[in-house]
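README: folding subset

This subset contains proteins for which both the sequence and a predicted structure token string are available. Records are stored as plain text. Below is the entry for Permease (536 residues), shown exactly as it appears on disk.
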Amino acid sequence: MGNEVTEFSSAHSPNAESKAEKALDLGSIHEGEDLDRLGYRQELRRNRSVITLLFQTLAIAAIPYGEGSPLLNAIYGGGPLSIFVGWVVVCILDECIALSLAELASRYPTSAGPYYWSFQIANSSKTLISFINGWIWLIGNWTITLSVNFGFASLLSATVSMYHPDWSANAWQLLLIFYAVCLCSFCICTFGNRYLPKIDIICATWTAITIVIILIALSVKAGAGRHSAAYALGHYDKSLSGWGNFTFFIGLLPAAYTFSAIGMVSSMAEECAKPAVKVPQAISLCIPVGSIAGLFYVLPLCFTLPPLEGILNAPAGQAIPYIFRVVMGSPGGGLGLIFLVLVITLFCSISITVAASRTTWAFARDDAIPLAKLWSRVDSRLGVPVWSLLLLTVIQMLLGLINLGSSSAFTAFVSVGVIALAVAYSIPIFLSLLQRRREVSKAHWCCGPIVGPIVNIIALCWIAFELVLFSMPTALPVTDVSMNYASVVFVGFMAISAFWYAVYARKCEDPLYLHIIVGVTVADLLSTSLRRTTRL
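--- output ---
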């Protein structure tokens, strides 16, 4: 026991702190030792480059699906003006979030992500803040993955409706399609780990080709007619949602949803070399690249949109299959385009499942969820946290059962994904600002003393507004079906995490994530060491 105290104290000497600080500088020592200085040991395979990380981020955004699946909200939000201007505005605002997250990911390149950043930056109540943000982050990862996979199932059922307009999948049929999607992603992510970087490259190539094909096909066919530039870029009908002058902001929802999971790639930090540079590069480049690609997708839509009232009645609430069928002039033409989008959605499901499973694994590694030792296991043969993947898949499938009882309640789980991710982003950004950006200023990748605070403040303001947007019903008047219960579900999840903290985490005399102590200041380290010595 005495030897343990001696080893603990000597390991956290001023010299050790100096080494820990140097370890955070890119290229000072091997990435595995960098990770060790942050308090973890290398368990996953580092097989990703900055290109594959960027492509994974773009795969998660899945622009044709991310913007297209919730496009009905933009129609309620006024139509073409909200689609086009909303895309531009949201991309600018989301880039501020991306830059803010990139700094933090560079300073602390670990799969733990926002809750680890919060722990390191907070001056007091480190365990409480980190634990709560960890659960928010975990819930956001689970529910945003759920939204992608269930959206994929809805898109598949809407594709059938292109040939059979009077048919719509019942709740059981939709659930079974959803289960098939979840199991497919699980198998690919479990047994195809070595091929996932290549899949991300294929996804990026496929997405680029898809956008070009859609641009040409819609522009040439224009089955519903071609609109003037004044209509395509400026038509705004605020009567559709019932929100009056606020209607435009409802139209921001599709673009905001598209890039809501941009920070999830931070969970891949332990699977690439030089993560202190490559991860922030991928995060910061995603939106500039994605926004330009997205313009080539939304512009042909705006110029060839069918009548807005018809889109609002699209089968399964999916606007894109309906638009493609009408604009192409036949179900076959529409099917050709929607097939391209479905493949992108499959890639998105794979990429976001991988990222969410790494978040689950990292949180379990920090002993913050029940049965943590089980979920934190990494299969040595596959190089994958199989049990975390399984937990993620099972939770999605269980939550999917809610749709059998109430579609509006289930929709709340979809919306809460964006809300939870946004809140998880905001906590370390706010703490960093509160500390005058002391920690991120030491990062290898930093926005600087002038641009940094500006993008941080804009990011926090935009996140606050996003929370309002994603908690509101899309249209008025509100009914039991159209009511948005996202805020209620989010509070419910927070109550569960608070209960777990009360019965487990708060009983820990030291920070819950004991190994994370390695990354804090020497004063904290010596203080912890002295406390332990005194107790003994």
